[in-house]
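We emphasize that the prediction below concerns an isolated chain of 160 residues; any contacts that depend on oligomerization or on bound cofactors are therefore not represented. The input was used exactly as deposited, without trimming of termini.
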Amino acid sequence: MPRNYRYTVSLRIWHSTAHPDRFTEVLGMMPDAVDIAGQPRVRKGRVMPVVPKVSYWYRDLGHDPVLDVSEFLDAQARALSPHRALFESIANEGGRAEFFIGFFLEAFNCGFDLSPELQRVCADLRLSLGFDIYGERAEDDCEDLADESTVAVADTDPPP
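Result of the prediction step, given as a token string:
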């Protein structure tokens, strides 16, 4: 059955004091972006006029066109299971980790199931599941998407 959506997944970690290199070393993955608490943010070699209050580590995990979103999340969670101690220490130290899922609707109505087993694996890893859901747009709904006033900038500080 064809899916009526696209998705992309990333792993995000916030911590008030830990240096992001700790996560890179333990996970064995190079991040796509990091912030170091108290130091100016650097993106693509440019120093930004922002000094984050918390450290941040981000890795784009992408998607698999063969797997639906829940199957992909399950595979990623199981791949991270050997690093359970890291995620437990992040949570115990007041930090937070999540799978961020960008979910893009390609039809008016679509859905998926997050099985109890997937939720259990994520909970055991202390990983939240954060969804941003983007609805389909009719062409006449998109007057001027290039207008700067319609562009939102994502904040890397943890949600409340």
